[in-house]
Predict the 3D structure of the following.
Amino acid sequence: MLITSFEQLTECIKASGKKRRIAVANPSDHCSIEALEMALDADIAELILVGDNTLESKLPEKILASGKAGIHAIDASDADSISAAAVEVVRSGKADILMKGLVNTDNYLRAILNKEHGLLPKGNVLTHLSVAQVPGYHKLLFFSDVAVIPYPTLQQRVEIIKYDLATCRKFGITEPKVALIHFTEKVNEKFPNSVDYVKLEEMAANGDFGPVMIGGPMDVKTACDTHSAQVKGISSPVCGDADLLIFPNIESGNTFYKTITFFGHATIAGMLQGAQCPIILPSRSDSPESKFNSMLLACISA
Amino acid sequence: MLITSFEQLTECIKASGKKRRIAVANPSDHCSIEALEMALDADIAELILVGDNTLESKLPEKILASGKAGIHAIDASDADSISAAAVEVVRSGKADILMKGLVNTDNYLRAILNKEHGLLPKGNVLTHLSVAQVPGYHKLLFFSDVAVIPYPTLQQRVEIIKYDLATCRKFGITEPKVALIHFTEKVNEKFPNSVDYVKLEEMAANGDFGPVMIGGPMDVKTACDTHSAQVKGISSPVCGDADLLIFPNIESGNTFYKTITFFGHATIAGMLQGAQCPIILPSRSDSPESKFNSMLLACISA
């Protein structure tokens, strides 16, 4: 089944009957709690809520009495300890997904990246994937990397694309259309990423990415708007119908993310890939709805 | 008077009584012709239409009979010659603004940048300014540089900001609010532009830019959305109320431009600054309305 909206994604996860278990590091803030309530209402996951001894007192009765949320309390209240405890819940096989509540990103990532007790297998690339549902586009739009790898090397980009494609396929997109984003469609050695794009297309033609259509360099509008592509005389099947946008750098990726949410009224999901399990790392300004969507994304990927 | 929309800008130019003269290089395509008709209808400018001997036959009676459009025909039909002739119309004092019709950007820019017969004074920086009118934002949004300078140096950025501020002030914005865009609000030596931003703020505090408020590094959403800034605890007066966005590089600027037009339904104007006169350089996928808006922008700046 092809999933083209977060509503469909919710239904699909419910229909699968598979309940993923999500370990959440210190969900004591209003926004995290609201997202968890949405997840319980939709009945998409089980929760393991990790925090200090006061956490239980901060949670509403609705969560405590749901029968689908356990508390994992520890005798420490600093963000490093809570993050490490949440990571350990995953490592010990008691959870399938890790999620950040009210802990700092630095502490959270430190626990994930810890060489002995963390979640990133040696040699793996940790990378961020976003998914947008945006009025005016006919399906979900996947894009990377807006948060973790500022300037991907060719090899990192290969890994990013492979992770992203695996997730696209979980959404029923059998032959994802990938747009390699640049500010122009010209390849120019002055812009090394445009040269890397040619190599990525060669790899795709060689079958290295499985069933896929890759086009670029092209700009965001050419990737998403058929009319723009026609005006420019570009005929790639990706144009106007992209599933996945690969951004050249973190500045352009972040700008897309922020612009599409504020000016384009997109709803967003996001997660980290490359670790032992999907990792949810909401940004401070994410809405509860966006956090819930990220839980959906992690659930289908786990 | 503070101008907050292209409609107001049109009225303001008409009310000023000043008719700018625009030299247009080969306006023989449908899209340019439509933009010129809009300009004549709105009565905002006089036109000097530069092309080969067949140009007149390609123009509609409406333009030819308007009494506000003269033909400047030359005995050559290549893009280099037509571009050079249009530049020469400006240099000889017969036009205040240069505009591109159906000639290639490369040929057009070559004529502008010609050291002997061009329009760029020695030592000047040529840079692009866009202006967006976008649903959901309470005023016009200026931004640079999405087209010409890929990775501005500190000195180039100073020049870009000075040109942009001069134009903002023509719109009645006496103390423009400038957001220095980055993917985070943290300054980090790994990202040299964030360090440059600190220097730009010092210059602003020192009065180098005149009356202005500069904030950053900050992301697009923090610059344009009060709520995001509050969540992040950032209190700059620029947050949620930016007039001008300065992008770190061409990839992020271009992504903003393409995203705000396609997903944000913005209408756009654009021009090059730094030359002897405002220069209109529409992109191939610009609508006639966008070309008309660019004429408005150039008229108020000239």
Q: What stands out?
A: Residues 8 and 69 of chain B are 24 Å apart (CA to CA). The first strand of chain B starts at residue 20 and ends at 25.
